[in-house]
Amino acid sequence: MDSGGNGLLGRIQLRVGRLPKGLQAHIYRVMDIAQELAQRHGMDPERASLGMLAHDVARAMSVEELTRRATELGLPIGVVESRVPILLHGPVGAEILCREDGLDDDPLYRAVYWHSTGHPSLDALGKLVFLADKLDPQKISYYPYIPLLRELALEDLDRALLEFLTRETVARVSNGDLVHPASYEMLNSLVAASMAAGSKPGSC
Ligand SMILES: [Fe+2]
Ligand SMILES: [Fe+2]
Question: Which ligand is the nearest neighbour of the Cα of 89?
Answer without folding.
Answer: 1
